[in-house]
Amino acid sequence: MVILKDRMFYKFSAYGFLKNLRLFEPFLILFFLSSGLSYTDIGILYATAEISTNLAEIPTGIYADIFGRRKSMLMGFGAYLVTFSLFYLTSNFYVFLVAMVLYGIGDAFRSGTHKAMILEYLKIKNMMDKKVEYYGSTRAASQFGSAINSLLAGLIVFYTGDYHLIFLITIIPYVADFINLATYPKELDGDIIKNKRRDFRKQVRATFSDFAAMFKNKFAFKALLNSAVFDAGFKSSKDYLQPILQSFALSLPVLLYMSGDERTAIVVGIVYFFLYLLSSYASKKAHVVVKKVKNIVFAINIIFVLGTLFIMFAGLAYAFELFLLSIVLFISLHVLFNMRRPMNVSYVSDKISSRVMASGLSVESQMKMIFSATFSFLIGFFADKFGVGHALFIVGMLILIIFPLAYLREE
């Protein structure tokens, strides 16, 4: 059975493509450093975003299940647009904190909700057996958007030298995605839209009941924990590729007639472009890997360990100024993450009631935010104390210590 590439498939893909046109992303840490912030300050900003998302995650997930997933997505994108405007207008740390709070709230409204809409669509079309292939294909469009994003961001920074400008330009694709989301069909809001006459209090109680049941099922809980810890490790460490690329660019014995910022812009743009192309391919082919290993649980566990080792050794390589090895390990980490994510979505969706899928995936996101906030702060703190390389190694070791608690077993 071939996945159905109809109008909604392309709208889902367009959502991911436009969402990932975050021109600031390949330069975010470099932007903060250029604004005079320390790594500890950066860790605080990242942690603030994660904590904001954490506090808003369950209420926004339940809001999506009760009032509609489309409205939740639109509110999230509204928060993003305000965030980008604040970053464009200032370099003040405290304004950055406000912007990160709004960014975190935007993530809370969005995270888990769009996945739930895709899964709802597959349920309607009787295509739940193609979850990995379908989600992987739409995610591939997201990663392709990130690849294009990297080139555009690199060109803008190269020609203007202005990190602030990339936040202003990012508003354009996000407005386009806002319009795209507003045209999603009502049926993707799930059972809620079909039961408008149901008593509101009964619906709230039913949602909380299913929500609490996730923690009583040890297989569902471990699935959420495994996904959350690995994703948090990736999310909190991935942007530290930027200072590594900057060090690599400045160490190259070529393009010496250019300024350091110009060389950095070229290297960052090119490396992130190929990184996301590889990630896109990995996401699209995730189902092939599952079929070859014939055991999705085994694949999820193995990638968890390998990815964590990549974080640790990428840090060590950077500490010993083996910049190229560190870059290769980070690229490999991105490939593993995007290969693993569709597997996780499929595995978690098998453990959670489809009626509260947005809430279930929001629980996963909430757990991820707790770990991300912790890891982000620790990396920033240790980076100021011992350097970025050693900070990555220490946090990677911590993630590896947590792994036995998140180890998945066959049910």
Q: Could you please describe the fold and organization of this structure?
A:
- The chain has 411 residues and is mostly helical.
- It has one domain: MFS general substrate transporter like domains (Growth Hormone, Chain: A), CATH 1.20.1250.
- The chain contains 18 helices and no strands.
- It has helices spanning 7-19, 28-34, 39-67, 69-89, 93-110, 113-124, 131-160, 163-182, 191-194, 200-216, 218-237, 241-251, 260-284, 286-293, 296-319, 323-349, 357-386, 388-406.
- Helix 7 packs antiparallel against helix 16, helix 15 (296-319) packs antiparallel against helix 18 (388-406) and helix 17 (357-386) packs antiparallel against helix 18.
- The longest helix has 30 residues, at 131-160.
- It is globular and about 65 Å long.
- Residues 193-197 have low confidence and may be disordered.
Give the tags:
single chain; 411 residues; mainly alpha; Growth Hormone, Chain: A; 82% helix
SSE order and pairing:
Elements: H1 7-19, H2 28-34, H3 39-67, H4 69-89, H5 93-110, H6 113-124, H7 131-160, H8 163-182, H9 191-194, H10 200-216, H11 218-237, H12 241-251, H13 260-284, H14 286-293, H15 296-319, H16 323-349, H17 357-386, H18 388-406
Helix pairs in contact: 1-7, 1-8, 3-4, 3-5, 3-17, 4-5, 4-6, 4-8, 6-17, 7-13, 7-16, 11-15, 11-16, 11-17, 11-18, 12-13, 12-16, 13-16, 14-16, 15-16, 15-18, 17-18
